[in-house]
Description:
The protein is built from 6 helices and 13 strands. It is α/β, with parallel strands linked by helices. The longest helix has 17 residues, at 106-122. The protein is globular and about 50 Å long. 38% of the residues are buried.
Amino acid sequence: MEPNPPFGGGRPEGSPVPAPLIGVSTYLEPAARWGVWELPAALLPTAYPRMVQRSGGLAVLLPPDAPSRAAAAVARLDGLVIAGGADVEPALYGAERDFRTGPPAEERDSWETALIRAALELGTPLLGVCRGMQLLNVTLGGTLTQHLDGHGGPLGKAGVLGAHPVAPVPGTRYASIVPEETAVPTYHHQCVRRLAPGLVASAHAVDGTVEAVELPGAAWVLGVQWHPEMGEDLRLARALVAAASAASPAGLPVPR
């Protein structure tokens, strides 16, 4: 009889490589209602996990937790998506609150900031979406414009996405993924004001608004101001999943 394999074993020769595990941060809402229940909830639009799934990844949702546990969570992931949502707390970038800035989301700010820092430290591929891109910029020392007209949905239609063209910056990682100008689904009223040290702009809107940022170098770190999960173009998500697959140890399952 052969000896027992070490704890956790290994992937049997010839078996399929497991899909990379992609964590997606979630909203934290004070109350949600379904059936007879009305309770606090951690939730996420299904477009996010479906985008990951359609791109070849295995999606796992990350509700807000103690920031001290972020590194342990990210260590179990192959990739990370910081989702869109509430405005980033202006105090995090040294600004007074504008009256048009949304209500605080302190628990989410703290958790997602810790997730971003852990992903950067561990070299985990990271995609920030809308708020996620803004928080990436703030986490690294940048600032935001608290209100911007013309980048939300159609005038007078709350909760309806708009669209506008985005042009890639030649030579960037984003341009290598999406080399042409594209129309993207968009809904936001804040944007990057001062880029954080080390970040570069990799796409712009017609009015000059920074629409994508990235960290140059080997690490796969990219943020976009629009909502790729709401469109049909999967190139960004597929690039994230490919980077997550490449970052996993060859032939061995990622520790879970």
